[in-house]
Amino acid sequence: MKIIDIKLGHISVPLRTPFKTALRTVNSVEDIIVRIETDTGNVGYGEIPPTGVITGDTTGAIIGAIESHIKKALIGMDIENIEEIMDKLDKSIVGNTSAKAGVDIAIYDLYGQLYNAPVYKILGGYRKEIITDITISVNEPEEMARDSIDAINRGYRTLKIKVGNDAKKDIERMKAIREAVGYDVDLRIDANQGWNYKEAIYTLRKMEDAGLNIELVEQPVPGHDFEGLKMVTDNVSIPVMADESVFSPKDAIKIMEMRAADYINIKLMKTGGIHNALKICNIAEVYGVECMIGCMLEAKVSVNAAVHLAAAKKIITKIDLDGPVLCSEDPVDGGSVFNESKIILNDAPGFGIKDIQGIKYI
Ligand SMILES: C[C@H](N)C(=O)N[C@@H](CCC(=O)O)C(=O)O
Ligand SMILES: [Mg+2]
Fold this sequence. Notes:
CATH class of the largest domain: Alpha Beta
Number of strands: 17
GO molecular function, one term: racemase and epimerase activity, acting on amino acids and derivatives
Family: Belongs to the mandelate racemase/muconate lactonizing enzyme family.
CATH topology of the largest domain: TIM Barrel
EC number: 5.1.1.-
Distance between the termini: 25 Å
Strand content: 15-25%
Number of helices: 14
Structural class: alpha/beta
Organism: Wansuia hejianensis
Pfam families: MR_MLE_C, MR_MLE_N
Helix content: 40-55%
Radius of gyration: 20 Å
Bound molecules: the ligand C[C@H](N)C(=O)N[C@@H](CCC(=O)O)C(=O)O, magnesium ion
Oligomer: single chain
């Protein structure tokens, strides 16, 4: 099964409500679709969100990386030589993890098709069903409390609350939400790098003192500030998760060696796809550090690939794969079934994506 072409397209999917974090506000998913064609007629799909504020990857840069570098390196290669393909993909251009992830996902889709097996079974096949949290955007405390109740009415039992744009107000936000939802619901928070380490320690201790029972805090300080992250981890009881601090397997080793965080959030767009995400899973197993699998604001093609990784790996114990349920429609035919918090895999070969509506080829 040889790669004969890599085509790129664009999809636009409106969100149910604006997605707001300490870093950005977004109204729709505007992603690049990767379609890899082979000499056997098999087609593999990938998807790439341009999340410039986190990965540095813009739409133009993603297209440029694939058209001018990745395509040249991979055309003509045989899918059965996946190890060599991933080596060439890594070396084709420095950085550009999102572009690499979209191509890596399409390659794994084809790899599963080649061996007539779903990718999660090839990678480990640990479970067939996973439960995701849902994100509550950062807004005024009363609005966030209302959004939290709505999420619970939709069946979610774990909420990921965005904070980080105003430390004092963040405490009010969490008080309003906990009061509204009670104590049967797990609340995890994500500051998206919005605090410095002193603010983080102050704010998180206030939340502890108020008995808010926070499950974990994601990326309290800037991604590059490993020492600050460790200061927070060492000085609060709420477990700390590294997100923007960990892109590569080397980042993961550094964070784990330093004991700078209690958990790692793996996202395919940061790692450059499944092949590097698998390395982080292996490292995490060695260090005994549980992982979350997360996503950017993405539709179902790339999130479905993350679902397969989560289903394959025991070390992934926390799921934040809510991209598709934040969208107002699903352009994807096939793949896992997203029934609000419950995500059920199917056993179609590869990632099981049959078709994607509304692709505008570039
Ligand atoms: C969508 C997901 N729940 C999430 O919050 N992901 C990121 C932010 C992604 C984005 O800005 O597109 C995260 O920081 O965990
Ligand atoms: Mg995060």
